[in-house]
Amino acid sequence: MVLPRHKLRGLSVLNVALVAIVLAIAITAYFLFFRTDQPAASATRPSVTVARGEVTASVSSSGTLQSSQTASPQFETSGTVTQIMVKVGQVVAKGTAIAKVDPAAAERQLRIAEQNQIASANSVDAAEESLSDAQDAAEAAEEASASPSPTPTNGQQTQSTQNQSSQNQSTQGQSPEVAVSNAEAGLARAKADKEQADQDVEAAQAAVDATTLKAPIAGTVTAINGSVGSVTGGSTSGSGTGSTGSTSGQGSASGTTSSTTTTSGSGFVDLADLKSLQVVAAFAEADAIKIKAGQSATVTLNAEPGTTLTASLASVSPTPTTTNGVVSYSATFSLTKIPANARIGQTANVTVQTAKAANALYVPSTAIATSGTTYTVTMADGAGTREVQIGVRGDSYTQITSGLAEGDRIELLQGSIGTTTNQNGQGRTGQFGQGQGQGQLPGGGQLPGAGTGVGGNRGR
């Protein structure tokens, strides 16, 4: 079928219009997606000015508040608890009586030890007298042998001299030298027994004294692990030697009692000095090598998030602790001032300053590109990249030791500095140039939005 000429003309015009519309859309899409001006895109990246100030680096961890001095005393003398003289929460001075056990058994051992001491003292006196007699006899024998013998008229020893010599030998049965030696040995044994008896009396007296449990430190009673009527562990004993009259002898008396403690804690009571608290926190091995005793730190408590405490690193444990394959080292921090509401066991967050550079050039860490040990920044004036040397690296800012000058403008590679201060929150001052987007800086400064740059102070 053949259309009229006027209808063919109408279709041609419509086709031409459709083709023109398609071509317009294609050209527009090309310019929008393939011909975007690259320098303009570069200009939208935020830029900052190299500034001068203080840069700090630090490491952080969490731990708990603990007392710097604790004690869990236990009875050293066994017995049944008869009295408890403190209560939980009570503040006690060093040496304060805490509890008592029945002293009857310990006092009995003391009496036995004292009796043995008296007997051993008598033995020493008797041994000294025996030695004195032996020495006198030896001296008499020596003088008799040294003096000239009288000459008998018939050339024989007189009957009286013979009778005396025979009597001495029969009564002593030993030479004078042997008698003195034996007497000296007997005196030495008696003195040793006396010394042991003295020690037994001291031990028995200490056992009697230990029937009253006393606070070894000044502090607060945090727990009482026993009760009246419970049995405490311990032992008391006494022994000794003695003699009666001039006849040397030995005797002993001893007694020992023991039992298994029924208390639930490591001691009968737990004491802690709540006026001297410290923070104990565990640091990962990579951070532990950066900290050492004497470094300053800041502490915040979860119970008081708005309060920042000053602390000093007292010590780092030389031995690690491994938990689920993770190695950490315990660090202890001394607090300069303790809040009135602080309690042992509270969670504490601690930050240790590990490095600081004063009056240093610095830039946001997000402006530095790292490739191995090479560090570069991109200049905001279109001059390309520039290699720099860095110093202290904080969380948000990095010290520049060479390659840039104060006032140089560089681009932020990631478009944001972040909303956190460097580790210890020291103040920073810097101006930021033109760029797209806007971000808040600590202390009221801003990353610039589109248009003119905005200056900002990075404060505590």
TrEMBL record:
GO CC aspect terms: cell envelope
Domain Multidrug resistance protein MdtA-like beta-barrel: 278-354
UniProt xrefs under Pfam families: Beta-barrel_RND
UniProt signal peptide: none
InterPro entries (alphabetical): MdtA-like_b-barrel, UPF0194_transport
Localisation per UniProt entry: Cell envelope
Principal location class: other
Domain of life: Bacteria
Region: Disordered, residue numbers: 121-198, 225-265, 418-460
Key word Secreted present: no
Listed Gly residues bias regions: 231-243, 427-460
Compositionally biased intervals (Low complexity): 132-176, 244-265
Keywords: Coiled coil, Membrane, Transmembrane, Transmembrane helix
Regions that span the bilayer: 12-33
Keyword Cytoplasm in record: no
Name recorded for this polypeptide: Macrolide-specific efflux system membrane fusion protein
